[in-house]
Amino acid sequence: MSRLLFTLWDGGGNVPPVLGLAGDLASRNHEVFVLADESLGEAVSRSGARHVPWTTAPQRASSDPATEFVRDFEPRTPFGATARIRDRLIVDPADAFARDTTEAIRQVGADAVISENLLMGCQVAATSAGLPNISLVPNVYPGKVPGVPPFGLGLAVREGFISRFRDGAASRLGRRLWDSRLADVNRFLGNYGQPPLSTLFEMLERPDRVLVLTAAAFEPGGGTRVPANVRYCGPRLEDPDWTSGWSEPEGPGPLVLVSLSTTTQGQANMIRRIIGALGRLPVRGLVTTGPSFRPQGLDIPANVTVLDSAPHSVVMPHAGAVITHAGHGTVIKSLANGVPLLCMPVGRDQPDTAARVVACGAGLRLRPGAGTHSITRALKRILTEPSFRNAAGKMSEAIATDYPEDTAVKEIETAAKSRQQQSD
């Protein structure tokens, strides 16, 4: 038995896979502690782990959107949204996250620290304490990979000089955006006796292990070109703990599930346009709004049902298509069930996830501001052209067969056991 310390921030879709993994380890008789926001206290407890609240680091107090501290939905451009995440989650609070993690390590006597990959301060604290430093990526891998476009813009993989020039220019632009805070990060690292970075993305290469919670088959090149410390562990398909029951809507036509972000992403107008498109087609629409959106004032057609939540793992086997903002959790559950997707990415990892859906042939992508007519036309294609469902079915087979054992659990147990043996 090991004592394992997870660190987690309440960013919405990143939470269920991390808590699912923590819960699986707790069920194997490990003592699992999760250093996380107050808003996640009940969810942590229900997973079987023990909640340890942040004391100085920023956090959400509840699911109320007013308590969100990153607020990357407020800037008007993708670059502004990225800068918000860089400043408010990664760089500015790094020392507070490190101090809280250091204290939690002392309190629980941790054998390993497993941090959500954006929590740089927690990873620095783990290394400073001499513990296994394991980073969890709950979506697609964001680091530099040869032959893969740089993360953040949702660029498709293409061959040829023009594409290489495009990728190089995008990479330089991305580095300029992220590395504008490099001096601050290096001062922070120096305070903990750790070497400086040449670029902020090098933080992905420093953990002992980076466990990516998606399917290697979903990544360009099958995930074969990533750094040596990266392991693809397969997706975790748990539903959020706050989902409620569900009854399949009656009537003719295929079921279309609509699932946008569980956090505030400015999705109100998008939901209205999607509902309008569903009303034009012979389908049964099921719209789940999540905890951060209240559906007051919506004009809801007779063939559309709007719910706060539903267990997507139960709904998706009945679905003919899914419309989503391309959050990784919704996308990978859809593909695991062989369901094609219409993706309308807003930000964060969503453009890159949507690009992978299009690349594998399992769906289409529209801009988030696409009109009702465009949504209607794209959804009609997905429902009537067999190629989309066939491609989603192939991805479902890959997900089902690639992971005969729980690689993430095995990697964490091995690291913690090694630490215990060194201590003995």
Characterization of this structure:
It is a single chain. It is built from 14 helices and 13 strands. It is of the alpha/beta class and 424 residues long. It folds into 2 domains: 3-234 and 403-423, Glycogen Phosphorylase B (Rossmann fold, 3-Layer(aba) Sandwich); 255-401, Glycogen Phosphorylase B (Rossmann fold, 3-Layer(aba) Sandwich). It has a 7-stranded parallel beta sheet with strand order 3-2-1-4-5-6-7, sandwiched between helices. A 6-stranded parallel beta sheet has the order 10-9-8-11-12-13, sandwiched between helices. α1 runs parallel beside α2, α4 crosses α5 (120-128) and α8 packs across α12. It starts with a strand and ends with a helix.
Please work out how many helical segments DSSP would assign: 14
* Biggest beta-sheet profile: 7 strands, parallel
User: What's the CATH first level of the largest domain?
Assistant: Alpha Beta
Percent of residues in helices comes to 25-40%
List keywords for this structure.
424 residues; alpha/beta; Rossmann fold; 2 domains; 14 helices; globular
Task: Please outline the helices and strands.
Elements: E1 3-7, H1 15-27, E2 31-36, H2 41-47, E3 50-53, H3 78-91, H4 94-108, E4 112-116, H5 120-128, E5 133-137, H6 161-178, H7 182-191, E6 209-212, E7 230-232, E8 255-259, H8 268-278, E9 284-288, E10 304-307, H9 312-315, E11 319-324, H10 328-336, E12 341-343, H11 350-359, E13 363-365, H12 372-384, H13 386-401, H14 407-423
Parallel strand pairs: 1-2, 1-4, 2-3, 4-5, 5-6, 6-7, 8-9, 8-11, 9-10, 11-12, 12-13
